[in-house]
Amino acid sequence: MQALSITNNDMYHRNIVRFGRLCVRITESQAQKNRQKVVARASKLFRESGFDGISVNDLMKAAGFTHGGFYNHFESKSALACEALDYAFRQMDGVREQMPSLEEFVTSYLSEEARKAPGATCPAAALAGEVARQPDSIKRVFAEGVERMILSIAGSLPETSTREEAVDLVCRMVGALVLARALPASSNLGRELLSTATERCRKTVMTSNGLRRGGRSSRRQS
């Protein structure tokens, strides 16, 4: 009877160990989902309010968690800011990829809808001024996001176009959206900035495409 009791105890402990390991795996999976939820929420809120415009407590509350759980996922608010900024830029990467043409992307980027929705649109326009006052770790993420934007737009221009043309388009688009958002929603100037930038940027794209169709030689080859 004693031997049987020991055997049963051993089986019980082995089952507890197996059950514990299963719990750990489930917990890690859920923890990763929770982390991504915080990053996604912070991505939106940072674009709306700035990095310093919202506290860790408010971020966690908005994501549905308590303040105490923050440091289980992130070393600091700056670490979260890096991930949230990267998340925002990658959202925009996806938006550009889904656009049928560069002209349509320009129109969407400089629309009144985009002006009114900083939390759901380009982080370059929403956070450029904020990033200038942040640590280099955040600036590097910002630089990588802007670089991908330039490369994406350059890839949508004819092969005869130069990188400078893509940089110029990005500067005009981001600058116009930043300025328009800095004005009252009722401002006619804000609408003028967007409409003018849209027209000029679209004209640049159309002219570039026209040159490609006309068979002009590449500047790089001249």
Index terms:
222 residues; mainly alpha; disordered C terminus; 0% strand; 9 helices
Description:
The chain is mostly helical. The chain has 9 helices and no strands. It starts with a helix and ends in an 8-residue tail after the last helix. Residues 1-26 and 215-222 have low confidence and may be disordered.
- CA-to-CA gap between the ends? 96 Å
Count of extended strands: 0
What overall form do the CA principal axes indicate? globular
Number of helices: 9
Poorly predicted spans: 1-26, 215-222
Would you kindly provide a brief summary of this structure?
The chain contains nine helices and no strands. The protein is mainly alpha-helical.
Set out the fold topology:
Elements: H1 2-49, H2 56-63, H3 77-98, H4 102-109, H5 112-115, H6 123-131, H7 136-156, H8 163-181, H9 188-214
